[in-house]
Amino acid sequence: MTSAGAPATPILHIDMDAFYASVAVRERPELWEVPVIVGGGYRGVVLSANYLAREHGVRSGMPATRARRLCPQAVVVAPDHELFGRVSTAVVETFRRVTPLVEVVSLDEAFLDVSGSVRRLGPPVEIAEQVRATIHDEQAITCSVGVAATISVAKLASKRAKPDGVVVVPPEEITTFLHPLDVGELYGVGEKTRAMLHRLGLVTVGDVAHTPVRTLQRAVGDHLGRHLHELAWGDDRREVVAGSSGAFGLGGGEPDRSMGAQETFGRDVDDRTVVLRELLRLTSTVTGRMRVAGVAGRTVTLTVRFADFTTITRSCTMSEATDVTQEVYRTATALYDALGLQRARLRLVGVRVEGLAPRESVHHQHVLGEREHGWSEADRAVDRAARRFGSAAVRPASLLS
Q1: Alpha-carbon distances, residue 153 vs 1, 93, 99, 136, 182 (angstroms)
Q2: I want to staple 152 with a disulfide (CB 3.0 to 4.6 A). Which of 20, 181, 236, 313 is the partner?
Q3: SS3 category, 349
């Protein structure tokens, strides 16, 4: 504890261990001792892999064909996003029983500020162990926790805790912990920045820490130079912001800034009709999720991946935010047609709606002659039917084949 009575290491970074794969194995105990890959299918990419598969080099985001070559004995499991959503909702509720200061940064990780919880629950390391035990008991999956004075150090500590562990970095040990690390491990440093720093001879965090700020700023720019220097000394002043993202699970916090879906075709496609049918299906999925979340968006982004893996994106911002399937689909179709692809062979297409805001904050500007009831009401009628009879109960005619 500090002299003021506050804990010296109040920040927890909690990272679920191989989240998708852990949940999938939980549902199929016979897979407990075999390598498991979630997602991928025949031509897709790996969504997650358990640690047995990772021992063979399988990683998230890897093409499924490469993953199967590395670990041919792995069992491939289709993702159950509804199940993942239920589990992650329960996990974030566990976090919020500990503290209201929960910042969710991705599907499988969150920061907690437990400054106000120590009198009730004990020191931060005890809280970390309580959270891990609760998640294991209630959800039968594991997580790793980093405990530190700052967000950036807690993030690095949780990586060292994997799998299924806790690592505490007291303030007096921050430099000992940080300085031997590769500079690419600093929170927020990507591959390009890492490569640039390595070219400058700055290989470890200690190298950056002992480089004068002005020298760093001349090399990488004023803002980044100062930011890197602060991170290298563990001087990260950013605070945990409660509910800044709703990515972890289906509820709580502010809405996601974007929602999207994509599909890898079973074989390369050059037929416009087939592509547009898939775009309609993806759009229906995305706008359905938006309506459940109560959000609407203005910017539609189309992703196209060609047979040679070249990928392009195109975006269009509409005059008004919407959650209407046909409006988003029309925009996605226009973006696709504007590419002028002729008979180009496509491997994947995707649709994303960005700039999401609460639906009640969006006001539709009616135009002269507009029908009183239109596609928006039709979408909501479809949603009601789907909730009662299943998602396949009502859908566009072109998707029936």
Answers
A1: 18, 24, 20, 25, 14
A2: 236
A3: strand
The sign one gets for the Cα dihedral 264, 269, 272, 273 is negative
DSSP-derived 3-state class of residue 130: helix
- Helix, strand and coil content of the chain, in percent to the nearest 5, comes to 45, 20, 35
pLDDT value of position 259: 80
Q: Residue 162: which of 14, 270, 25 has the closest Cα?
A: 14
Active site residue 109: yes
User: Could you tell me which of 9, 7, 23, 10 has the C-alpha nearest to residue 143?
Assistant: 23
Judge whether 206 and 174 are in contact, CB under 8 Å: no
Question: Of these residues, 103, 109, 278, 327, which one is catalytic?
Answer: 109
Look up residue 68 and give its two tokens: 């199967």
pTM greater than the 0.90 cutoff: no
Contacts of 374 (CB under 8 A, 6+ apart): none
- Summarised one tens digit per residue, pLDDT across range 134-188 is 999 888 899 999 999 999 999 999 999 999 999 999 999 999 999 999 999 987 7
Longest dimension (CA), the chain: 70
Q: Is the pLDDT of residue 112 over 80?
A: yes
| Cα distance between residue 146 and residue 335, in whole Å | 44
Q: How far apart are CA 230 and CA 225, in angstroms?
A: 9
Q: Dihedrals φ, ψ of 118, to 5°?
A: -70, -35
Instruction: In whole angstroms, give the CA distance from residue 374 to residue 370.
Output: 9
Report the alpha-carbon distance of residue 133 to residue 126 in Å, rounded.
11
- What's the DSSP call for residue 5? S
CA dihedral 300, 306, 310, 314 (to 10 degrees): -20
- Round to whole Å and give the CA distance between 315 and 309: 20
Cβ-contact 299, 317 below 8 angstroms:
yes
Q: Are 22 and 41 in contact (CB under 8 A)?
A: no
Q: How confident is the model at residue 248 (pLDDT cuts 50, 70, 90)?
A: very low
Q: Per residue in 47-69, pLDDT tens?
A: 899 999 999 999 988 888 899 99
76 contacts 31 by C-beta, under 8 angstroms: no
